[in-house]
C-alpha cells in the first residue's frame, strides 16, 4: 500500500477534515466565546516581540501559569493547523505558501479580535501561533518523508 492509497484515501481525508472542523470549532470557542466579553479598555500590541521578550527574559515577574499559557499555549494550540492544512490541501505543502496562508488566517483572527474587542490584537500571538503551525508542518513533512522511505 503506497502513500497515496491510505494517506489520501477518501476515508482518511474525511477523518482529517472532520478533525479540522472540530479543531476550528474548539479554537473559535477558545478565541472568541469561552469566558470572553468585549472589553472597554481594549489592549493591543503592534510591536514584534514586545510581549514575548519579557516572558522569556523576565520570567520571574510572571506566575508560571501565565508564562506557560502565553508562550506554550500560543504555540501548542496551533500545531494541528500545521498538520491538517498540508494534509487536506496538497498545494499548501510548499513551505512559503503554507506560511503565507497561516499568517493570513492568524491575521484574520487577530483583526476579528480587534474589531469585536474580544481577546486582544497582538502581533506576538501571530508569531507564536505561526511557530506552532511550523512545528506541525515539520512533523507532517517528516511523517510523509518517513512513509516514503519505508515504502521504497
TrEMBL record:
The keyword Lipid metabolism does not apply. Residues 21-143 form the VanZ-like domain. Keywords: Membrane, Transmembrane, Transmembrane helix. InterPro entries: Teicoplanin_resist-assoc (IPR053150), VanZ-like (IPR006976). Pfam families: VanZ (PF04892). The chain crosses the membrane at residues 12-32, 71-89, 96-115, 127-145. PANTHER family: INTEGRAL MEMBRANE PROTEIN, MEMBRANE PROTEIN-RELATED. This is VanZ family protein. It comes from Paenibacillus taichungensis. The lineage of its organism: Bacteria, Bacillati, Bacillota, Bacilli, Bacillales.
Amino acid at each position: 500500500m503506497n502513500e497515496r492509497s491510505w494517506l489520501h484515501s477518501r476515508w482518511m481525508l474525511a477523518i482529517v477534515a472532520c478533525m479540522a472542523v472540530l479543531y476550528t470549532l474548539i479554537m473559535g470557542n477558545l478565541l472568541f466565546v469561552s469566558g470572553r466579553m468585549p472589553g472597554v479598555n481594549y489592549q493591543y500590541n503592534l510591536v514584534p516581540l514586545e510581549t514575548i521578550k519579557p516572558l522569556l527574559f523576565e520570567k520571574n515577574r510572571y506566575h508560571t501559569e501565565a508564562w506557560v499559557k502565553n508562550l506554550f499555549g500560543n504555540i501548542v494550540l496551533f500545531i494541528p493547523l500545521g498538520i491538517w492544512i498540508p494534509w487536506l490541501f496538497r498545494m499548501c505543502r510548499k513551505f512559503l505558501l503554507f506560511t503565507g496562508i497561516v499568517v493570513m488566517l492568524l491575521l484574520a483572527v487577530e483583526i476579528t479580535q480587534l474589531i469585536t474587542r474580544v481577546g486582544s490584537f497582538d502581533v506576538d500571538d501571530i508569531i507564536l501561533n505561526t511557530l506552532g503551525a511550523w512545528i506541525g508542518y515539520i512533523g507532517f513533512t517528516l511523517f510523509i518523508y518517513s512513509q516514503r522511505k519505508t515504502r521504497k
